[in-house]
Write a structure and sequence with these properties.
2 copies of one chain form a homodimer. The first copy, chain A, is α+β, with helices and mostly antiparallel strands and 202 residues long. Chain A folds into 2 domains: 75 residues, 3-Layer(aba) Sandwich (Glutaredoxin), CATH 3.40.30; 115 residues, Glutathione S-transferase Yfyf (Class Pi), Chain A, domain 2 (Up-down Bundle). Helices cover 52% and strands 7% of the residues of chain A. Chain A contains 7 helices and 4 strands. Chain A has a 4-stranded mixed beta sheet with strand order 2-1-3-4, covered by helices on one side. In chain A, helix 1 runs parallel beside helix 3 and helix 1 runs antiparallel to helix 6. The longest helix of chain A is centred in the middle third of the chain and has 30 residues. Chain A is globular and about 45 Å long. The mean pLDDT of chain A is 97. At the A-B interface, helix 3, helix 4 and helix 5 of A face helix 3, helix 4 and helix 5 of B. Chains A, B: It holds the Pfam family GST_C. Chains A, B: One of its GO terms (molecular function) is transferase activity. Chains A, B: InterPro entries: Glutathione-S-Trfase_C-like, Glutathione-S-Trfase_C_sf, Glutathione_S-Trfase, Glutathione_S-Trfase_N, GST_C, Gtt2-like_N, Thioredoxin-like_sf.
Chain lengths: 202, 202
């Protein structure tokens, strides 16, 4: 098995952190996003969305999308469990994972692309829309702070994939000054706790 | 159990179609999105994202997010299987579901909101960004047509949740003139086939 990625990209970090929690060793091949290697025909044959990471299985099958890759490894290596054990816990983990992805991760990514113009060689950017996305992401910092006042982890009593998604999103947001506010102490305490896990440095 | 929704909303259709495929009867309670009922404190206590659908369990637990709700019912009622049977099939269904959600469903929703200004009473709209999203969605119509030239269904050999997501997204897109092109005959044939399922009228 092998993963095509760019180590410094936040999406790559999500899978790396997940695999580190599982104790799974992996071979990596770096893709030069800045040069557009991900948009070349050879890479699009691996992933029609042109995004990293992509997992190549030993039989040559390619799997894309972070959550699909992580869930695949959850099934191959069930422990430690990171997606939930019962039907209700799994649904709760997925609900919070989606809250994070759609309301924090995506707006943060759009803020980055539209404020910095990082990919302006290949897409039209709208800086005002980027600023709007930044505010949308920040609004969810407050919601997460309220959640973490009641529960130690994003999806409940224990560390799950939802925490990995939230940590990688929040850390990525710093590039466009999306930051935890001083008064969001529950969110900050959670951030300190999750950041201290060895997997956070994967 | 009960689902809070708005029947004409495309997100509600995704869950309704899924439940129809499973043969699950459900009680529904309508939420007036136009009047902002979903943003009132009473509803936000059920779902902090302020979105429909929300599933209320018999013990008063609330579950939000279409895919979390559908996967919960997949576990309670495994047949007919709509999320995949093996680890690899499940990952493939999830990969294609995410391709659809992030590249077709989300851009279509943003095109709708930013072109029509449907929610301009509660959000800033950027019509040019809406037009850009429309083009992004249309680019995936071509990718789906190529996929469906090789496979009868979005995720492979058989009907899955990925087909439900694609159908509901494509049908919703018509409101902003996002439509299957005449030359996309594989996509059109798939659309005809999937639309003829009784669940498509749920």
């Amino acid at each position: 098995m092998k993963i095509y990625e760019l180590k410094r990209a936040p999406n790559a970090r999500r899978v790396r952190m997940f695999l580190a929690e599982k104790g799974i060793e992996m071979a990596y091949h770096q893709i030069d996003l800045g040069a557009g290697e991900n948009l070349a025909p050879e890479f699009l044959a691996k992933n029609p969305a042109g995004r990293i990471p992509v997992l190549e299985l030993d039989d040559g099958t390619y799997l894309s999308e972070t959550l699909a890759i992580c869930r695949y490894f959850e099934e191959l290596h069930p422990e430690p469990n990171l997606f939930g054990r019962t039907a209700l816990e799994r649904a709760t983990v997925e609900m919070w994972s989606r809250f994070i992805e759609f309301n924090l991760w995506l707006p943060t990514g759009m803020a980055f692309r539209h404020i910095t113009g990082f990919y302006k060689d290949r897409e039209t950017v709208f800086p005002e829309w980027g600023e709007e996305c930044k505010q949308q992401a920040l609004a969810w910092f407050a919601k997460l702070d309220a959640r973490l006042a009641e529960q130690p982890y994003v999806a409940g009593e224990r560390f799950t994939i939802a925490d990995i998604l939230a940590l990688c999103s929040i850390d990525f947001g710093k590039v466009v000054d999306i930051r935890i506010a001083p008064e969001q102490r529950h969110l900050q305490a959670w951030h300190d706790r999750v950041s201290s896990r060895p997997s956070a440095r994967a």
